[in-house]
From TrEMBL, chain B:
InterPro entries: AAA+_ATPase, ABC_transporter-like_ATP-bd, ABC_transporter-like_CS, ABC_transpr_PhnC, MetN_ABC_transporter-like, P-loop_NTPase. The gene is phnC. It comes from Furfurilactobacillus rossiae. CDD domains: ABC_PhnC_transporter (cd03256). Residues 10-254 form the ABC transporter domain. This is Phosphonate ABC transporter ATP-binding protein. Pfam families: ABC_tran.
TrEMBL record, chain C:
CDD domains: TM_PBP2. It comes from the Bacteria. It is a multi-pass membrane protein. The gene is phnE. This is Phosphonate ABC transporter, permease protein PhnE. The chain crosses the membrane at residues 12-34, 74-96, 236-256. The lineage of its organism: Bacteria, Bacillati, Bacillota, Bacilli, Lactobacillales.
């Protein structure tokens, strides 16, 4: 008897809980769909879509190489260079941040590492394009602002990943360095770094893949790379130009992803 | 045989260890080890064997008492003095504690770290004499052919023997071995124990080892110490040790030792 | 004593130094190509700091005007994630090799999905603003495509890890493929799917905060206005609002994902 009563009450509770969540989700969706103030879609939408697709099918092949430093190959190379230098800078900055944010003992609260984590979370959330605009104020429009924006923004993610790999290392080798009479620097050089550097390199490559994507859009705010000519082509409705740039981005990013993935496998 | 007039190389005086969470690891340990002894510590897991071992080179901080290494207190030493004392005490670990991503040679050379200024070792500028020392140590443990390989390509037994080679080049007075054979199969366990034995007999190093296996303890020890619940309950030269004594250390129901 | 022979690669640490030299070479080449002028950064750093100082004094009076666009941002992310998911479920089933055994079909659709995933969010936003005009429509479409690319991959990789036993059982009893999907696949993957959807929602909230910069609705519009009017005190309020919302959504979503497991 007791058992069946308990069973029933648990069932009722379970059912109310499901109802509660279901209702909550419905409310959220009603709010989301009816709350949003959809303006009218512009009447030319159909025609523009067609034009964009036509542009991709008939891309402006002349733009690929013109030898004037303004062509697709040049701006794509510039995009890659921005992502590359930005990643190197951020990897370098991330190392001390990672040691700051890494917990020394598992499941142990520490003010030091928590503060490091918060700083990294804020950096990660600070929008990249706002950083780019801030750096444009300082160094003027162009690739350098893009490099700096990526270099700073990526620290948020790389610092976190690096910190996690520091936390994951085996404490044993460090202990053995102490036991032979080594000091803290010896421990870092002979035990910690050999364990974390492969992971650092692998995460940096991964971040490079993401940074290449970011670098393609930083130009839209004036921070160098393919984004500037792309936005210009969209605004002047040169859809053939847009088409070739899209193709260029898709091919470049695909190749970079593939190469980087292969390199990361070598490291692993 | 140990001669009574020799000064102890390890002198543990009234050592107690209470962990942060309040549990007691060691209580009032008194122990003298003379140069050239091969001491094996036996006891159940949790009896405090590892804690005692790690107190000897101060990987663990003791709560009370002193540990003297060759007459100098390691429990009070700081900075450079502590590191110099540790240089005289090599340690071999159950999990080998090698840097798996580095080469065998680099792991063995790490045994010389205590002899170098930091900048020099950090740049990897080890003297030729020390490299020769490392090769010789690897030859002793039969791994010279693996010298340039990464440690993670070696088997567990080979890794432990690399750790032994590291202890060789450290040129210590004392070798501590904390469950050196617990992760190894019986055959490799013997190889590693033979390495320790040759360090003890040919090079005159004092060896203190924790062992789980009673058979290995009887085979290699010159003296056996029994530990139970953080206290020394048994301490005899090997010729006085009987199987019944050993069984008592593990079973806990005994008249031996100084139970309170 | 006989030392083993060291290969040249081992002797001179070719792999390590080789990578280092390639890395340095690429760095110098990139540096020359981009004509980076690090002295400009040092010289103009006071301007950067001045801007930063202005942002340190947020214009709290503008805070109420941030609320409505911020809510629109979340709504865009919600609808975009949902539409992306609805499209992703059939797409993932077609791309999963244990459901569709024809390698040509899975290979072809995967190439298409990979291509979609190479396009970053703001690029899609710029395109959709040109197509449908300024406003949240463009943002929702952007996030739909963006999350479609991400979720499809997570989903088909997830489907491929499931236990194939029930699949074969249904086919063996003469069941149709649609029955296989309904009764053998979805029950096995649903909790992981929800976890991925929440994860994508987190990323979409982050992305949707800046889409408005190009006119695709949400808080990004205000961000663009404040920056173009040099009202960095207002920019600061918007960024703070983004920080709070993004971190709160991350926290909630993380909590929900942990409860799911």
């Amino acid at each position: 008897m007791m058992g069946s009563i308990q069973h029933r009450s648990a069932g009722v509770w379970h059912r109310t809980r499901s109802w509660f969540w279901g209702l909550l989700i419905v409310i959220v969706y009603v709010w989301g769909i009816f709350g949003i103030n959809f303006s009218k879609i512009q009447s030319s939408a159909g025609a523009v879509t067609k034009a964009v697709l036509m542009g991709i099918i008939h891309p402006d092949w002349h733009y690929v190489y013109q030898g004037n430093g303004e062509d697709l190959v040049s701006v794509m190379l510039q995009t890659l260079a921005i992502a590359f230098v930005g990643t190197i800078i951020s990897a370098r900055i991330s190392i001390p941040f990672a040691f700051w944010a890494a917990k020394r003992r598992r499941h142990h609260f520490s003010v030091l590492s928590t503060s490091g984590r918060i700083v990294l979370a804020v950096v990660r959330t600070f929008p990249e394009i706002v950083l780019a605009i801030m750096f444009i104020k300082a160094v003027g429009p162009g690739a350098f602002a893009g490099v700096l924006a990526l270099g700073v923004h990526s620290v948020g993610m790389l610092g976190k990943l690096f910190a996690e790999s520091i936390e994951a290392i085996d404490a044993g080798p460090g202990e053995s360095i102490l036991s032979v009479g080594g000091n803290a620097v010896n421990g870092l050089v002979f035990a910690t770094l050999p364990q974390v550097l492969p992971a650092f390199a692998s995460y940096s490559l991964y971040r490079f893949e993401i940074s290449v994507r970011s670098a393609t859009i930083l130009g839209m705010v004036g921070a160098g790379g393919v984004g500037t000519p792309l936005l210009f082509a969209i605004q002047t409705r040169s859809w053939n130009r847009v088409g070739i740039i899209l193709i260029g981005i898709i091919i470049t990013v695909t190749i970079i992803d593939y190469l980087s993935g292969w390199l990361r496998k070598q490291l692993g | 045989m140990t001669k009574p007039e020799l000064k102890p190389v390890i002198d543990v005086q009234h050592v107690s260890k209470i962990y942060d969470n309040g549990t007691s690891g060691l209580s009032d340990i008194n122990l003298q080890v003379k140069p050239g002894e091969f001491v094996v510590i036996v006891g159940l897991s949790g009896a405090g064997k590892s804690t005692l071992m790690r107190s000897l080179n101060r990987l663990h901080q003791v709560t009370e008492g002193h540990v003297l290494i060759d007459g100098r207190s390691i429990t009070e030493a700081k900075g450079r003095n502590l590191r110099q004392l540790r240089r005289d005490v090599a340690m071999i670990f159950q999990n080998f504690n090698l840097v798996k991503q580095s080469t065998v040679l680099r792991n063995v050379l790490a045994g010389r770290l205590g002899y170098y200024p930091t900048w020099q070792s950090s740049l990897g500028l080890f003297k030729e004499a020390d490299k020769q020392r490392a090769y010789k140590a690897l030859e002793r443990v039969n791994l010279l052919d693996k010298v340039y390989q990464r440690v993670d390509q070696l088997s567990g037994g080979q890794q432990q023997r690399v750790a032994v080679a590291r202890a060789f080049v450290q040129d210590p007075k004392i070798v501590l071995a904390d469950e050196p054979t617990a992760s190894l199969d019986p055959k490799t366990a013997h190889l590693v124990m033979n390495d320790l034995k040759s360090m003890n007999q040919e090079l005159g190093k004092t060896v203190v080892a924790n062992l789980h296996s009673v058979a290995l303890a009887k085979e290699y020890a010159t003296r056996i110490i029994g530990l139970r619940a953080g206290r020394i309950v048994y301490d005899e030269s090997i010729q006085n040790v009987t199987d019944a004594d050993l069984a008592d250390i593990y079973n806990g129901d005994s008249s031996v030792g100084e139970r309170q | 004593m006989k030392l083993p022979k060291q290969t040249i690669v081992q002797r001179f640490h070719i792999r390590f130094f080789g990578s280092l030299i390639i890395l340095l070479g690429l760095l110098i080449a990139s540096n020359n190509f981009l004509k980076l002028d690090f002295s400009a950064l040092v010289q103009n750093f006071d301007q950067f700091l001045a801007l930063f100082k202005e942002m340190m004094h947020p214009d709290w009076k503008s805070a109420p005007f941030v609320v409505q666009p911020m809510l629109e941002t979340i709504q865009m992310a919600l609808i975009g994630t949902t539409l992306g998911t609805l499209l992703a479920i059939p797409a993932a089933i077609v791309a999963a090799r244990n459901v569709v055994t024809n390698k040509w079909i899975t290979g072809f659709v995967r190439i298409i999905f990979n291509m979609i995933r190479t396009l970053p969010d703001l690029l899609l936003a710029a395109l959709f603003v040109a197509i449908v005009g300024i406003g949240p429509y463009a943002g929702v479409l952007t996030l739909t495509i963006f999350s479609f690319g991400m979720i499809t991959k997570l989903f088909y990789e997830c489907i491929e890890t499931i236990d194939n036993g029930p699949l074969e059982a249904i086919l063996a009893t003469g069941g149709k493929r649609s029955a296989m999907v309904m009764f053998a696949i979805l029950p096995q993957v649903s909790s992981r799917f929800i976890s991925y959807i929440l994860y994508t929602f987190e990323i979409n909230v982050r992305a949707s905060t800046v889409l408005g910069y190009l006119g695709a609705g949400g808080i990004g519009q205000q961000l663009q206005t404040s920056l173009s009017q040099f009202r960095y005190d207002q920019t600061a309020v918007i960024i703070l609002a983004i920080l709070i919302v993004v971190l709160a959504i991350d926290g909630l979503s993380n909590f929900a994902r942990e409860r799911l497991q």
